[in-house]
Amino acid sequence: MKEEIGLWIDHKKTVIVNSTGDEIITLNSNMEKHVRFSGGAHGKTAYGAQYFPADDQQDRRFVEHLNKYYSDVIAHLRDAKAIVIMGPGEAKLELEKRLEHAGLKEYILNIETADKLTERQIAARVKQFFAGQKQPVG
């Protein structure tokens, strides 16, 4: 992926677009909006014989799933020198925190709230943003 990247993110999917809009990558989290895992009041975790109440186990699995998802997204942003983040909910802010921990926060140029957009709409907004960045001032 090129050095100038824009993306639209929520907990279900991320669409990553380069600044010219000609390269688009879609990553799916494969997670439902409200995660429901089967199990009784207590369950065995992937960490061995330790038991957690069902709600704690669901929260732990949700967090583990999000960690992997955000790691996949960040892997696509490693070479970025300019990042624009869009999205409707908390995922854009959660990604910002993770980018900070990954040492990439300084490359975030803008974070904006944006409802559901098609890939073409995302590409157009990213292209427009970076075109505006390159215009001479004065």
Rg: 18 Å
- The string of secondary-structure elements, in order, is EEEEEHEHEH
Which residues sit in consecutive blocks of at least 5 with pLDDT less than 50? Answer: 34-49
Amino- and carboxy-terminal Cα gap = 32 Å
How many beta-strand runs? 7
Describe what you observe in this structure.
The protein is α/β, with parallel strands linked by helices and 138 residues long. Helix content is 35%, strand content 25%. It contains 3 helices and 7 strands. The protein has helices at 54-75, 91-101, 119-133; strands at 4-9, 13-18, 24-28, 42-44, 51-53, 82-87, 108-113. The protein is globular and about 55 Å long.
Précis, in short:
By secondary structure, this protein is an alpha/beta fold. It is built from 3 helices and 7 strands, in the order βββββαβαβα.
Question: Secondary structure elements and their pairing?
Answer:
Layout (H helix, E strand, L loop, with lengths): L3 E6 L3 E6 L5 E5 L13 E3 L6 E3 H22 L6 E6 L3 H11 L6 E6 L5 H15 L5
Parallel strand pairs: 1-6, 6-7
Antiparallel strand pairs: 1-2, 2-3, 4-5
Name the features.
138 residues; alpha/beta; five-stranded mixed beta sheet; two-stranded antiparallel ribbon; 7 strands; globular
